[in-house]
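Reading group handout, session on sequence-to-structure problems. Before we discuss, look at one worked example. The prompt was deliberately terse, the way you'd type it at a terminal:

> structure Response regulator transcription factor

The input record follows.
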Amino acid sequence: MRILVVEDDPDLNRQLVTSLGNAGYAVDHALDGEEGHYLGENEPYDAVILDIGLPKMDGLRVLESWRKAGRDFPVLILTARDRWGDKVQGFDAGADDYVAKPFHMEEILARLRALVRRAAGHSKSDLVCGPVHLDTRSGRVLVDGNQIRLTSHEYRLLSYLMHHQGRVVSRTELVEHLYDQDFDRDSNTVEVFVGRVRKKLGVDVIQTVRGLGYVLGPPEPAARA
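And the output record:
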């Protein structure tokens, strides 16, 4: 999952990027509204954390412009605790949720997980595909009750496919949603990670659709003799 952080406070921006990265997200960031607006218009994010009070272009204008342009990714706005009017304006501009400053990072992560799940059509934190269970809260992956150890990139790939199971996901889409803008994007890398995840899971849930990409679904039941 790929997240954009738009926050003008350098220390808070850095804390958000670090915490999101540690939680398994690919993260891009901007320190002003103009750069944030540009990234949101040109990159396919799974969610955005957007401060309201930004230099060069305020957060509400950024959000309104995204929505007018048809950018429908979930947006979590950050507001000052005593400025309730920002919350109302934020929702009217197209925000999906808000957190008031100061906040606990755990709350940001929990709200972000919920936004990403809902955007993909899931209501529960535990995503299930046949014998594979992915707990979005803890980042644990289980196959038939046994925990599987994945690297951060392997986890991102499996998490994206689990959020979008049953739908063919192209290699290009995976590259765009698994890596931040500074990553050396090579579609062959996706094939390597898919192979590693398949091997570690040990169950046939990731299918290759020739010429199109990959689709995740429950394994076919064994044929009766």
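Points for discussion. First: The chain has a mean pLDDT of 90. Second: DSSP finds eight helices and eleven strands in the chain.
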